[in-house]
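Final report, section 2: Outcomes. Of the targets proposed, Glucosamine-6-phosphate isomerase/6-phosphogluconolactonase is the one most frequently requested by collaborating groups, and we therefore present its record in full.
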Amino acid sequence: MVHDYYHIPAEELGRGARVPLTVLGDSGEVFYELALEMVNTIREHNERGERTVFICPVGPVGQYPIFVRLVNEERLSLKNCWFINMDEYLTDDDEWIDEDDPLSFRGFMNRTVYGQIDPELLMPAEQRVFPDPLDPGRVPALIEELGGVDIAFGGIGITGHLAFNEPDPSLTPEEFAQLKTRTLDIHAETRATNCIGDLGGALEDMPHRCVTIGMSEILGARKVRLGVFRDWHRAVIRRTAYGEVSSDFPATLLQNHPDARVYVNANAAQAAC
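The predicted structure is given below as tokens.
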């Protein structure tokens, strides 16, 4: 049986959705909207003398070159910004994979984001944070100390995961929403999907473990802004916005968030089946 929401045509996508959707053109428009949200929020907070706290993904990543260009062109100071990354791959011994590994999210952020911003504008290193498998309590404690997260950015995985919060049907949605930063096994579906884009299909070389911020940290953000653009996002976005709220598909928990929005490109807007 195919659920009716998978048949919703592109021109009707968003109508009656329980998570607000903004349907755009190509992927560049999705990335531009995410970059603009980052820049506009930082600018507004700087003008008011306030700090900015973001949860940042490595996937999607197309917003970062735009963000970097706008920061450098506008001479936008990041000195009062805190970027808390969502997750990182781990070795089988639950240590961060090496930063030089092409899969490393820490390496990506350093090369593509922090390393491309004028050092005069860049925030101090201690304000560029990754969840630590040896100290998982640090991120939730830091967020509380900073007064909360302004915007959690990200995408949606094949299993409906946000960050690496893989489904756990043994928990109620309320219990799942309270999960905090932790280490866990990456589901087989996620490893297979990620290896296609990241390793040319080399499944045997994909890590089995990860550290991730929790649903508690994501759902606790004042705003959540996501971007989807792949073929398989056609089904994922429909279940997210129209499906039953369930820990079996974590993105559905966004239906209970007061200010969540997903930017959808024309490809992902097409009917799933």
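Strands lie at 21-23, 52-56, 81-85, 87-90, 128-129, 151-154, 182-185, 209-212, 223-228, 260-264.
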